[in-house]
Every structure is written in structure tokens, then in C-alpha cells.
Amino acid sequence: MKKIIITGAGGLLGLNLLTLIDSSKYKIIAIDKKIKNLYLAKLINPNIETKVIDLAKKSNLKEIFEGAECVIQLQAQISAHNSKPYIKNNIESVKNVINTCEENKIPNLIHLSSSVVISISKDDYTKTKTKGEEIVKSSKCPHTILRPPLMYGCFDIKHLDHIIKTFDKSLFIPLPGNGKYIRQPLYVRDMAKIILGLIERKPKNKIYNIIGKENIYFIDLLKIIRKTKNKKTFFIKIPKPLFILMLNIYSFIFKKKTLNSNQLKSLSAGDIFPVDDWEDEFNIKYTNFHQGIKETIESKYYNSTNLMEK
Predict the structure, then answer these.
(1) Is 97 exposed, middle or buried (0-12, 13-18, 19+ CB in 10 A)?
(2) Which CATH superfamily is domain 2-158+185-211+274-284 in?
(3) Which listed residue, 5, 45, 242, 304, has the most CB atoms within 10 A of its CB?
(4) pLDDT of 180 strictly over 80
(5) CB 65 within 8 Å of CB 100
(6) How far is CA 52 from CA 9, 33, 94, 207, 209, in A?
(7) Where do the structural domains in the chain lie, given as residue ranges?
């Protein structure tokens, strides 16, 4: 059995990958810094081995990685209110994994970067993901770098999931500005299938822009969700400065983290990313947004997201 290491295995992509990967074919070691995420990972795929490790800290990873034929590096800091978590989880953790891969001469590293590295945005997430990608490119590890845009699907607790569930709780959804900023969403299971194929391919030290093949205004994206859920929700367009003020007040009163101003700017930046012909490259058919949202809502795993929020 091939030994496979998955870091950040308790996140959106990691959990979806574990629903598809054949654990009778691979010896899988799933690493995450949150035990509750690994608890869910174990429920999804009982045959995996789990390790609770904060990869941003100096750890003795050599023995864990020893003999692995593929390392799938998925850990990332998506949101935070200062730069420290981004530096820890998008730079320091990548350095530690890369050093261990080099030490163990890992023959196949799959690194999840982000389309933000070619974005017009210059926030902490963009800067640190760019630096993390540079660390991989300059390493001695045979690698493949994947750059996805906004991903959605089951186990999503940071992107569209909150919005999808808001349709069940509220008749009104506030929007920053007019909502007419382009999104190129990617169904997470498409990315998981690409990674499954890459496990068996010899890496070419290449970068792939795995971008959704539809350019959808954010407000139209919400309308598709509304139609899929058969709701009569109304969208309220709010000027961005006022929207940020409302987020800050909400965060202060309810002690919950929300988007900050830089993240909101990134959301509404209006980037249109170049799309590589990844369907032919990886023999994967693109799942359009209508179908992806329908599959997400109807999936047996959909409500499992609640376990990750507790």
C-alpha cells in the first residue's frame, strides 16, 4: 500500500478528498491541528490514521513522513484579523512540511496554493499564500502546485456554507455594494478528483490554475442558491463602508469573527482569473455551479458541517 500524507486533512478539500479516496489502496495519515476536524475525518473514512499536529510549530515529522510516496499539502489560514495566523499557517507550516519532505526525499508533493497569488488584491492572505508557493517552487521536492479560486461544497464552513444556511434562517440577506463582482467558483469535488489523479502521476514541477469555468456575478450566484433551495429571500444592497461598520458591530456584540475590510475588498475585487484547460489535462469534467450546489445540498454529508462548528 502506498503511504499518503494529507496535511490540513480536516478542512474543506481534505474532508471531501477523504470521501473519495480508496483507503484499501493507500495507507493514509491525516494531519490537522484541530482534533474535532480529525474526528469528523475518521467518521468519513474510518481506515485512516490521524495525527493532531500544529505544523506551524517545530515538530518531529521525520518519522511520520518516512516512506511516504505522496504528500498532499492542504493546510492554510483563510481568514484572520491580523497577519500572525497567516504567517504561521501559510508560510511557517509550509516551510516545516517542505523541510521534512526534502529530508525524507518525498517523490511527489501536491501543494494547494490559491488563485489569489495572481489577484489584484494585496491583503495578508494573498501575500502569505504567494510566499508559501515560492517556498515550494524553490524547494528540491518534485511537486505540483494547484491554484483554485473560491471553492464550495460539503464541509465548507468559511465560504458559501454560511450563506447557504442563512437562506433557512432569514428572509433578508445583506450584500456589500451592488453584488456585481465576478466569481469563478469551483466545486470542491472536482479538485479532489484532480488530486486523486495526481497521486498516481509523476510530478512535473508545474503550476495549474484550476479555475471554475463560469464567470458569475456574486449576486447571481446567490440567486442560484435561492432558486435551488426554493426560497423567497430578498437581497439588501448596502454601501461597503456601512457594511463594514455593521460587520464590526456584529462581531463586537456577538463575539464572532467576521470579514474584515481587506477580506471584503478581496471578495469584491472583480478578478477574472486565467483558466487552464484542466478538464483535458486531468480528464475531469467540470461541474457547473447549478449542479454543484444541488449536489451539496442533497449530499448525505451536508449536515456534517455542524460538527465542525461546535
Answers:
(1) buried
(2) NAD(P)-binding Rossmann-like Domain (3.40.50.720)
(3) 5
(4) yes
(5) yes
(6) 10, 5, 16, 29, 30
(7) 2-158+185-211+274-284
70-73 and 109-112 strand pairing: parallel
Torsion angles phi and psi, residue 230, rounded to 5: 55, 50
DSSP state, 206? Answer: E
Q: Evaluate whether 110 touches 199 at the Cβ level (below 8 Å).
A: yes
- Encoded amino acid at 178, one letter: N
Cell numbers given for 228: 435551488
The pLDDT of residue 177 is: 86
The candidate with the shortest Cα–Cα distance to 258, out of 79, 132, 127, 98, is 79
**Torsion on CA atoms 32, 35, 40, 42, rounded to nearest 10:** 80
Minimal CA–CA distance to 28: which of 70, 57, 62?
Answer: 70
Question: Collapsing DSSP states into helix, strand and coil, what is residue 282?
Answer: helix
**Residue-wise pLDDT tens digits, 150-178:** 899 998 877 777 778 788 888 998 888 88
DSSP code for 200: T
202: cell is: 509523476
- C-alpha 6: how far from its chain's center? 14
